[in-house]
Design brief:
The protein is an all-alpha fold and 187 residues long. The protein is built from eight helices and no strands. The longest helix is centred in the N-terminal third of the chain and has 27 residues. 21% of the residues are buried.
Length: 187
């Protein structure tokens, strides 16, 4: 089996009758192709520094958010944890008879930050998914700080209009789920 990180072998017996210049050219072409496929261009030091600064900002934001969530005691009723931060109670249920779209998000984050993912999902499914995404951003930014590399190309390949619509649909379904829970339609 041929190692793809090395130059592909050239069948010298088959090329014995061939022109030596053509053989040398084919050999050089094979080496260039292998180097092109498996080499990563070096980054300018300023680009590495820019990536690390962005990673530090993301690390601090996601780490701060998860730290605050971890410090909060989740409300037993599945919503209202935000009041521990000094915020007023949500007025949506009293005004409109339905929970707000982010109802239960703080509770869900608090539960997820403590590792209680099933309870987090049951409190607010979208909140659980966002808390997991925040944790992934924390890990990815730490990796970027250490290595100077970024996962942005992966994100760009994954994020498209279809994914945006699916995230929006998930948010609407989570809101509907929370409304059904508050009305007693779901346990």
């Amino acid at each position: 089996m041929h190692d793809p990180t090395t130059t592909p072998p050239i069948d010298r017996d088959a090329s014995a009758d061939a022109d030596p210049v053509a053989v040398a050219l084919a050999d050089a072409t094979a080496r260039t192709a292998a180097a092109t496929v498996f080499s990563v261009p070096a980054l300018e030091p300023s680009e590495v520094a820019r990536r690390r600064v962005a990673a530090v900002i993301i690390f601090l934001a996601s780490g701060g958010l998860l730290s605050v969530a971890w410090a909060l005691a989740p409300a037993a009723r599945g919503f209202g944890t935000h009041q521990a931060l000094g915020l007023p109670p949500c007025s949506w249920p009293a005004r409109f008879g339905v929970p707000c779209p982010s109802c239960g998000m703080t509770t869900s984050f608090a539960l997820a930050a403590k590792g209680r993912l099933l309870e987090s999902f049951l409190a607010q499914p979208m909140g659980c998914l966002l808390a997991i995404a925040t944790g992934m951003a924390l890990v990815a930014s730490a990796w970027s700080i250490v290595t100077g590399r970024t996962l942005w190309p992966v994100y760009e390949r994954l994020w498209n209009a279809r994914v945006a619509w699916l995230v929006g649909l998930a948010a609407l379904l989570a809101w509907g789920y929370k409304a059904a829970c508050m009305r007693g339609w779901i346990g």
